[in-house]
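Next comes a single protein record:
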Amino acid sequence: MTKQADVIQKEEKYYVATQWQLMRQKFVKHKLAMAGLVVLALLYTLGIFSDFFATQDYQKRNTRYINAPPQRIRFIDADGHFHLRPFVYGLTQEMDPETWRRTYVEDTSVIQPIRFFVRTDTYKFWGLFDANIRFMGVDEGPFFLFGTDGSGRDLFSRVMYATRISLTVGLVGVFLSFVLGCVFGGISGYYGGKIDMVIQRVIEFLLSIPTIPLWMALAAALPKDWETIQIYFAITIILSMVGWCSLARVVRGKLLEVKQKDFVIAAKLAGANDWQIITRHLLPSFMSYLIVSITLAIPNMIIGETALSFLGIGLRPPVVSWGVLLQDAQNVRTINLHPWLLIPAVFVVVAVLSFNFLGDGLRDAADPYK
């Protein structure tokens, strides 16, 4: 009787649950979506607190360690002794007598313990106040978890700062695309007629233009003397100018489907104006689909910014983004000699996959009755 009562109780909870509760229950069961959510939460945490998680100033040049390889975190030393505190070995520079290429080897006689919440050089946290505590570091000597670039700058610290820029470009760009897509798609689907025809022809024209050449042309039009913050917002607007088209078509199709429903007619009889009907009744009726569209659009924004910056027409140094960092890995010889310069690409792939997994889970949860 107890098992049967539990089954009946679960069925009762299912039938009295709201749609949002059913969506949440179904989303939690999607393992890939939950994994993507956890990874994205970690990435955004690293981006928001990049000043704290970076091991040093991302612009600091370590001229003694140019193109140094990543240092391996160890718990067991060369003599086989186990250390409770993780450590890295020191680096010694050598010159290859045949190729005259500078190489680095681990100096096993120098053990550098990794310490947490260490005091280092002073930095401006979010540009608001001075701080000198970082998540981890060493007392002295080199500490390059991802190696260094051709100027001797710590790649790990630069990736932390780049994470903030690349991920926020996606969020801001999608927000603008969401607003434009809902407004123009709502107007097109609700009013129809000549307004619908004009908006749809504009959308078809924008979608017919190859994306990369369009972005290149718009980005190349930016003044060279603009400041970093101006370029940042300009790139975001450029990415949003095309990103709203697909969402506008989805919104238009949904409005054509539901605008003759009883609840819309009831809102009209109650005296609601057109703007209230669109924003308070029509758009919320398929908000779950809009959330899914937003989630799946963010990776496109991230890839767009990365592509523009990689080509040298997007964000420019001293700003760091994943695309800016990948400019150092534009030829096969560099990748062959210094493969760690491709580490920012790993972050791009992980972020895009996580967003896609999250969007896939939201898409399944959007229809909890299936």
Observations:
- The chain has two domains: 71-143, 158-365.
- The chain has 14 helices and five strands.
- The mean pLDDT is 82.
